[in-house]
Design goal:
heterodimer, A: alpha/beta, six-stranded mixed beta sheet, four-stranded antiparallel beta sheet, globular, B: 327 residues, mainly alpha, two-stranded antiparallel sheet
Chain lengths: 234, 327
């Protein structure tokens, strides 16, 4: 579904991603784990068009997207739920969700999509009129995910959804990610919460210093000596 | 009973607006010449302020280019007015044509400037737009002195009533456009850019395009207003046309009124422009001083403007219930 081939990404003169290759298959949850500064968020930003790779190609459903601006990439069906939620704090929950459907095509069907999102996150319906900044951390993450779903994506890039959440809420978030996959949405999940991520992922990649260090199915990686030592502290 | 009062309250706002419109439209029939001239200048400030707030109020990009778009409108009118003097004398409403061209030229300028500078964040955009005012002013000064030999120009004179009706027309058009933009997804997009531009890009808003287009639309009305006001002033030169006050006053008026709602800038401009007139006639020597104090007080004590204060009072009056349901 998504092919990333040999991309190199720089911030000024500093190279962040090195000749990186990655493939996301339709219908799976692919997890991307790694330490701080490994380049996970950079990779997501490159896929969604916020950053341009200096070489290499990215294609989605057979179409090259590495030269498209972000709004066209959203229109093709890739939704990016960014790290730290990035909500519109003073706009209401409903307005935040509506903005998620801004893209041509999804705007027309936004009422129907809104119902689906409310069904998935009943809390958001209760809070629809409130400014986003008045939500709790967990609710804000729900809103960020709901907003991401409003564009009716085929592929969701989810960056650190468990960041700053209580363990019980983390469970809930992972549950929802799993249910998205069941609805047919493909997911590229970036996480630092390695154990839980590997448990729900179909496949996983370990990113180290801007390169893919390991790749395999979730269980395999959980058993791998390297992952156990470096990320699980075992 | 309840139903009836509900219907009344629904009709209240459109009713008031319609009444104001009728009063404004029929003013030349019974009003004095002074009231027409005064209202023309108040409406001018309302247009400049609402146009400014349309773009800058929601996105948070502070444009200081209002005087530039206004001046471009003035010069369009001065140059075209001379070319088409005969047509204007035959039918004063021919000026509408000149006004439209003035608006379009301003919009083109805004489009180009926007495309170049709207990638700049915050203070850089403000500085650049203000530089634009000075740049065009000095360019014109140089041109006029070097090639025409005189600094100023005379503009075709038309009746005050015609000017009044044209400017009222521009105001109505602006209010309609602002209303529809604010209600559309572009209005929400502008607001989301103001709140978090990066997130706006993430969710698929073509942020540069939205900014540039709304910036250009807001400049249309400023340019049109400049074109029509030139005909009231009859003599113009670069200093009159590119007056920095016309950049700063709309910003202050919008802040004074409050930029969150559409009517904030309108109220701010009306109150402020009328205040200016009173102060200027009653206290000609202290007018700037009093003006300054009012402004400082606004910024210190009314962060959300006049509208913010009114809303606070209403919220406090109706607040009891809310407080209970929240608690």
């Amino acid at each position: 579904m998504l092919q990333v081939k040999n991309i190199n990404v720089f911030y000024g003169r500093i190279q962040v991603l090195w000749d990186l290759c990655l493939e996301v298959k339709e219908g799976e949850i692919l997890a991307l784990v790694g330490a701080n500064g490994a380049g996970k968020t950079t990779l997501l930003n490159t896929i969604s068009g916020i950053i341009r790779p200096s070489s290499g190609t990215i294609s989605f459903l057979g179409r090259r997207i590495d030269n498209l601006p972000p709004h066209e990439i959203v229109q093709l069906g890739i939704s990016h739920i960014p790290e730290g939620r990035r909500l519109f704090a003073d706009m209401s929950v409903l307005e935040n969700l509506e903005m998620g459907a801004y893209s041509r095509g999804s705007w027309k069907t936004r009422q129907k999509t809104l119902e689906e999102v409310f069904h998935l996150f009943p809390r958001l319906r209760e809070r629809a009129g409130q400014p986003a900044r008045t939500l709790s951390g967990g609710e804000q993450q729900m809103l960020a995910m709901g907003r991401g779903l409003m564009s009716k994506p085929k592929l969701c890039l989810i960056d650190e959804p468990s960041n700053g959440l209580a363990p019980k809420l983390v469970q809930e978030v992972f549950q929802i990610i799993r249910s998205l996959r069941e609805q047919g949405i493909t997911i590229l999940l970036v996480e630092q919460n390695v154990r839980q991520t590997l448990e729900i992922a179909d496949r996983a990649c370990v990113l180290e210093n801007g390169r893919i260090a390991l790749e395999g199915c979730g269980e395999e990686l959980l058993k791998s000596e390297h992952v156990r030592k470096a990320y699980l502290g075992l | 009973m309840n139903k009836i009062s509900f219907n009344y309250s629904k009709l209240l706002l459109p009713g008031i607006l319609l009444a104001i419109l009728v009063v404004l439209a029929t003013l030349p029939l019974y009003g004095s010449n002074y009231s027409i001239v005064l209202l023309t200048s108040i409406i001018m400030y309302v247009i400049l302020t609402v146009s400014w707030a349309l773009f800058s109020g929601s996105t948070g990009y502070i444009s200081l280019a209002t005087a530039a778009f206004f001046g471009v409108g003035i010069y369009t009118s001065a140059i075209l007015g001379r070319t088409f003097t005969a047509s204007i004398l035959a039918n004063e409403y021919f000026v509408v044509f000149i006004v439209i061209i003035g608006g379009l030229i301003s919009a083109c300028l805004a489009f180009i400037v926007g495309a170049i500078t709207l990638r700049l964040r915050g203070i850089y955009f403000a500085i650049f737009t203000f530089g634009l005012v000075e740049l065009i002013k000095n360019l014109l000064l140089w041109y006029e002195v070097k090639f025409t030999g005189t600094r100023g120009r005379f503009v075709v004179v038309i009746g005050n009533e015609t000017i009044y009706y044209v400017i009222l027309g521009i105001l109505l058009l602006l209010l309609l456009v602002t209303y529809f933009i604010r209600r559309s997804r572009y209005g929400l997009a502008l607001e989301s850019i103001g709140e978090h531009e990066e997130a706006a890009a993430h969710i698929g808003i073509n942020v540069t395009m939205v900014k540039v287009i709304i910036f250009a639309i807001s400049a249309v009305f400023v340019g049109m207003t400049g074109s029509i006001m030139a005909m009231r002033w009859t003599y113009i030169d670069p200093y009159i046309s590119f007056d920095p006050n016309l950049t700063f006053l709309p910003v202050l008026m919008a802040i004074f009124g409050g930029t969150r709602q559409m009517y904030g800038p309108i109220i701010g401009a009306v109150v402020f422009a009328y205040l200016e007139e009173i102060l200027l006639t009653r206290f000609p020597y202290y007018y700037m001083l009093i003006f300054g104090i009012v402004l400082a007080a606004t910024i210190l004590y009314l962060p959300n403007g006049l509208v913010g204060v009114v809303q606070k009072i209403i919220a406090r009056l109706a607040g009891g219930k809310h407080a209970h349901s929240r608690g």
